[in-house]
Design a protein that fits this description.
By secondary structure, this protein is of the alpha/beta class. It folds into 2 domains: about 170 residues, Rossmann fold (3-Layer(aba) Sandwich), CATH 3.40.50.620; about 140 residues, Rossmann fold (3-Layer(aba) Sandwich), CATH 3.40.50. It is built from 8 helices and 15 strands. The strands form 3 sheets. Strands 5-9-4-1-2-3-10 form a 7-stranded parallel β-sheet, sandwiched between helices. A 5-stranded parallel β-sheet has the order 12-11-13-14-15. α1 links the parallel β1 and β2. The longest helix is centred in the first third of the chain and has 15 residues. The radius of gyration is 24 Å and the shape is elongated. Bound molecules: flavin-adenine dinucleotide (FAD). Flavin-adenine dinucleotide (FAD) binds next to α6, α7, β14 and α8.
């Protein structure tokens, strides 16, 4: 028996990632139960009532509506003990990613995160994940049970069956006044959040945006406006070269919305987007290696001899990125 662990959202629904994890769990072809944690779980359970689960179990209550280690871990532990599964799958949300290793430890099991594939081979589950900054992909299994897996998004199409009546069984769990009280969330406004993994386009900024331009002037303020306008209009995700984020990290007044989190490359991230547009960047190997999962690559650089021209980009525009992006923003704004 397998178990899929889910948590309902604030409005009582299940997220797309939860439905993808459900589809990946069903695809294993093994019997499974569903465990749902949340403030309201009934409508979430009913929404997937026809998914073929043997049982629906819930841990419900206001204290389970919030992301908190103590309550999330206790709820997951109670559900796993109630089912006694070999394999536990969960969507890789921040809530489950945070508690699964600790829950596995309590149960004498093992946990693995960032799972990007799950299949049955010779009657045993096999997981896939990347290692060493996504340079090596491994397919592996474990003999320890229970085996808890946090599944990444996009590995299965979201389950889209009919709703029904789940007749979920409540697992009672009393949590004696947890020490941590969640008083709210502090998050940057949506338009300040520049890293958007779901965006179609990766927009990369290079150090050229902060260099002296043909008129001998540095135009950082203009660069900031052009970049932020483009991000707002295109909803793309912002990546950067190391040179540019390092300048910011040294306290040089460059582009204040960039941090090392935006850095793409060998010592940065390896994002996955359908398309990428690089601007004011030289396209050196330590940077472009971070583009290996980007589908279509374009670059705008003044240097006709830059790395992008040497086979790194599908299309290189040898042009002034200030002028090009100004025009692009006007067109997008229409
Ligand atoms: C071990 C190691 C690891 C590294 N890891 C990374 C990494 O993870 N990520 C990373 O990015 N780098 C990494 N680097 C650094 C990398 O080698 C390059 O130094 C860096 O990517 C260069 O950044 P850049 O292209 O923005 O800057 P520059 O090399 O300074 O290039 C700026 C470019 O902007 C162009 N330009 C200027 N003005 C304009 C304009 N108006 N319009 C159009 N183009 C313009 C210029 O022609 C130039 O080509 C690493 C280096 C080492 C040694």
């Amino acid at each position: 028996m397998n178990l899929i662990l889910l948590h309902s959202e604030a409005d009582g629904t299940l997220s797309k990632l939860s439905l993808e994890t459900l589809a990946a769990t069903i695809a294993l072809g093994a019997p499974f139960s569903v465990g749902i944690v949340g403030e309201n779980t009934a409508s979430a359970a009913d929404s997937i009532a026809t998914c073929g689960a043997g049982k629906f179990l819930t841990v419900t209550g206001p204290e389970f509506g919030q992301a908190r280690y103590a309550t999330d871990a206790a709820a997951a532990e109670a559900l796993i003990r109630a089912v006694g599964p070999d394999l536990v799958t969960a969507p890789a949300t921040s809530r489950w990613n945070r508690v699964l290793p600790g829950v596995a430890h309590r149960l004498g099991g093992k946990a693995d995160s960032h799972v990007t594939g799950l299949v049955m081979a010779d009657g045993k589950p096999q997981a896939t994940r990347w290692f060493y900054r996504q340079r090596m992909e491994a397919v592996f299994s474990r003999s320890t049970r229970p085996w808890l897996l946090a599944l990444e998004g996009g590995i299965a199409a979201a389950w889209a069956g009919a709703a029904g009546t789940a007749n979920a069984e409540a697992v009672s769990l009393t949590v004696s006044s947890p020490r941590t009280s969640v008083i709210g969330f502090e998050a940057p406004a949506a338009d300040q959040q520049t890293i958007r993994p779901d965006a179609d386009l990766l927009f990369v900024t290079g150090a050229g945006w902060t260099k002296k331009q043909s008129d001998g002037q540095v135009k950082t303020a203009e660069a900031e406006t052009l970049i932020l306008d483009f991000l707002r209009l295109s909803r793309s995700s912002l990546g950067s070269t190391k040179s540019l984020v390092d300048l910011g990290g040294e306290g040089v007044a460059v582009l204040p919305f960039l941090s090392h989190m935006n850095q793409v490359g060998q010592t940065g991230s390896t994002p996955r987007h359908a398309k990428g547009l690089s601007t004011c960047c030289h396209g050196e190997e330590p940077h472009t290696v971070g583009w290996r999962f980007i589908g279509e690559r374009r670059a705008i650089s003044l240097d006709a001899n830059c790395g992008w021209a040497r086979g790194k980009a599908d299309i290189l525009y040898v042009a002034d990125a200030f002028a090009v992006m100004e025009k692009v923003n006007v067109l997008l704004g229409r």
